[in-house]
Amino acid sequence: MRSHIEIKREYSDGASAEHVIRALLPDNREVPADTKIAMHAEGSTLIVEVSSNGDLPSFLRTVDDLLLCLQAAEGALRSGR
Question: Could you list the residue range(s) of the whole structural domain that residue 20 is in?
Fold first, then answer.
């Protein structure tokens, strides 16, 4: 079964979107073999795409983990770390 999600987040500027991408990269290196995560910025918009040919529960766990990491990265961005 193929699963796919696209997540878009708008920031105040392109540098912020790039900072979030850099913060998320280490977490996205160890994903299930049947899962692909792609991230890029278009101006001040962060676009994250997750695709998987694996089972749905695994896909949902991956997306949940990604969203938690995204939340943490945005929190650090807001606090100026």
Answer: 3-79
